[in-house]
Amino acid sequence: MKTKHLTICLVLLSLNCLKPSFAQINFTANDKVPAYNNNFLYGIGGDYYEGWNDEQLAEISAGAPLKKIPGLGVASLRLALFEYFLEYWGYNIRVNTFKYYESLGIKDNACIIGYPIEGTDKNIFHREKKSYCEKRSELFENMYTDIWDGGANGTPVNDQNYYALYLYKMVNAYKGKIKFWGVWNEPDLSGKGWLPKGQAGNWWDSNPLPCDMPNINTPIFNYIRLLRISYEVIKYVDPQSYVSIGGIGYPSFLDAVLRNTDNPDNGKVSNAYPLKGGAYFDVLDYHSYPHVEGNMRFWDNSIGGFKYIRHSDEAIKSISKKKDEFTEVLAKYGYGSTYPQKVWTITESNIPRKMTGEDYGGEVAQRNFIVKGAIHCQRNGISQWYIYQTADRMKIEDVKDMNGEFAVMGLYNTLKGVQPYNQVINTTGIAHKTMSDALLGKTIDLARTAQLNLGDKIDGAAFVKDGKYTYALWAKTNTDKSEVASATYSFPASLGITSLERRNWDQSKTKLSTNINSSNISLSSEPIFLIDNNTAIATEDILENNKIQLDFFPNPAQDLCNIKFSIYQNEPLTISIYDSKGVFITNVIENMNTTSGSYNYEWNTSGLTSGIYQCKLSTPSFSISKKISVIK
User: Fold this and answer.
1) Which residues, including other chains, have CB under 8 Å from residue 627's CB and lie 6 or more apart?
2) Cys bridge to 224: 105, 110, 262, 373, which one at CB 3.0-4.6 A?
3) DSSP string, 121-179
4) Is 265 helix (H, G, I), strand (E, B) or coil?
5) Is residue 512 one of the residues assigned to a domain?
6) Domain at 71, CATH number
7) 534 pLDDT band (50/70/90 cuts)?
8) Same domain, 207 and 322
9) Same domain, 402 and 498
């Protein structure tokens, strides 16, 4: 009998050992926030466009070299994985899509989370039934049940806490594919968040009312509970990712989160609810739309009204002004001193490509804002910035009033009725691609930027990779509703710069760049990129009696080849390609008006078969031919 009892005990012990052991996290964002040291990735907000799948949209955003799609130079996406979608289609529905994103170089994605399933033919109801005002809550049922149950149902989370279970399954499926988990989208969307202290209904002096926040329709304490569950579960599954608040829009909402706990009893501190909202997020994520934020105007008593300062350089100041306002609130509650600093992201930002009413916008304005804004973010410690959005929602000529402004913030013209790969890029998209080509993978160098001594009329920054510098520069605008500006810049002699490759905003389309010296560089309001690559063709090295210089890199070429050429006089220029037998194939450049100087042109050779080709550069006065090899 003793042997039998011993055997049973050993079996029970063995089964108990096989039972999974789950250890909850023992830290919060009051203890640590992981440093984010990855490169700035030039992101964009993903969206749904009828007739296009997610992979195709990613291709026209990031570019797909194997399909010869140039894209926009995007390297990170802001996406959504809502519970109602994953519960209906299955939690692994987009795993392969995310793997494809990775193959395109897309990484460190941001993701909006939340939004419970409500009914459908699966008959699953996870939305909270309670109404805290005249409208029903948008959050989850059972949020105040225990988050953890120690593995009673095979998972560490309590399966009756629907939000916790959704997070656990989702983050396990997409671990490593999402870097920033955004807890709801614009939870503070409201007509009252802007109210100043002392004014009736403001959020500084009293907590927001549930129906003040129509995107959640719930007390602020319930949103903090959402943050708490998010932080505990996400950090348990993927501690290297980040939990983000927002994107939010109002410092007063942040103040309410930081001064309350998730206690439904008016946010009080207790044993069950020991920490306030700041403990449950790593990232302060906000949205910035300068054209509607009121930062490009001020009250002028002399005229008894507002005075406007609407231009792209004032618009980018709105980005950092808003960050400063949030920083002040964080500092008030000890973040950056008693507690770790937060990481910063902006997951929606843009201005419209058409100006309506008093709001600023326009083709050149938007183009300038996108480039200047990305650079301004990096100068001001914002880790990632996502443009709103991939493509327009309507034709620009159909925008008649302010209601249509957000429909023309795409980098492509509208995709409505457009078949995949027939998209038309707009000038903002061209400028974005030029910027990404010049700066992606490079780090802003604030010390070098200071050494540029740009003064009051010029703005820009220095970027570096492997000891080589790229500079973005522009003349600052200062006139209301104008993007006209001009200035001349010379690099300080102490930097030892002699020759630079100049790329204008449209270089990704024209493929042209010019080699210039470092003095008396003409600037306009449109940013240019100057690459100090130590390989430029110096004008003084051109043989005066030859008048023309022509070279290729690489040679042999596979898919892309840089044609470098120099001329000594102003005249139209053509570059033609012939096969080894002298049969004409195509004109790479045809009758392009050029001025004396050195140029680079990016030529796509992917349509050619392997072989030896003749490249002929000709002007009305001179011509030169050289052989180039193409291999496949």
Assistant:
1) 612, 613, 614, 615
2) 262
3) TTTEE-B---BSSSSB--SBTTTTS-SB-TTTTSSSB-TTSHHHHHHHHHHHHHTTTEE
4) coil
5) yes
6) 3.20.20.80
7) low
8) yes
9) no
Residues 503 and 421 in one domain: no
Question: What is the number of helices (H) and of strands (E) in the chain?
Answer: 12, 27
Whether 405 is in a domain gets the answer yes
pLDDT average, residue stretch 67-96 = 96
Dist CA 190 CA 341 (whole Å): 27
- Which residue's entry shows tokens 């804002």? 369
Domain span at residue 561 reads: 543-630
Residues whose CB falls within 8 Å of the CB of residue 590, separated by 6 or more in sequence, listed in order: 574
- Supply φ then ψ for residue 218, to 5 degrees: -155, 160
Residues 197 and 90 in one domain: yes
Domains held by the chain: number? 3
- pLDDT at residue 574 is higher than 70: yes
Domain shared by 206 and 290, yes or no: yes
> Among 122, 56, 64, 58, which residue's Cα sits nearest to residue 90?
122
Provide the 8-state DSSP code for 557: B
Whether residue 451 is contained in a domain is answered as yes
Compute the average pLDDT of residues 546-567: 82
CA dihedral 579, 584, 586, 589 (to 10 degrees): 100
Is the per-residue pLDDT at 214 higher than 50? Answer: yes
Q: What is the pTM of this model?
A: 0.86
pLDDT for position 535: 40
Percentage of residues in the chain having pLDDT higher than 70? 94
The CA–CA distances, whole Å, from 294 to 298, 315, 359 equal 8, 10, 9
Domain boundary among 397, 425, 441: 441
In three-state secondary structure terms, 443 is strand
Q: What mean pLDDT, rounded, does the chain reach?
A: 91
Strands 43-45 and 384-387, how do they pair? parallel
Contacts of residue 160, defined as CB under 8 A and 6 or more positions apart, other chains included, come to 142, 145
Question: Do 591 and 521 belong to one domain?
Answer: no
Q: Say if residue 415 is in the same domain as residue 295.
A: yes
Identify the residue whose tokens are 């063995």. Answer: 14
Q: How far apart are CA 169 and CA 183, in angstroms?
A: 16
Conformation bin of residue 476: beta by default, left when phi > 0, alpha when psi is -120 to 50? beta
Residue ending a domain, among 532, 551, 586, is 532
Amino acid, res. 341: Q
- Is residue 86 a part of any domain in this protein? yes
Asked if 433 and 456 sit in the same domain, the reply is: no
Longest dimension (CA), the chain: 111
Report pLDDT digits (tens) over 360-403.
Answer: 999 999 999 999 999 999 999 999 999 999 999 999 999 988 88
Long-range contacts formed by 329-336: CB under 8 A, 24+ apart: 329/251, 329/254, 329/255, 329/258, 330/254, 330/258, 330/278, 330/284, 332/255, 332/258, 333/258, 333/259, 333/276, 333/278, 335/258, 335/278
The CA distance from 145 to 149, in Å, is 10
pLDDT the model gives residue 607: 83
Compute and round to an integer the Cα radius of gyration of the chain: 29
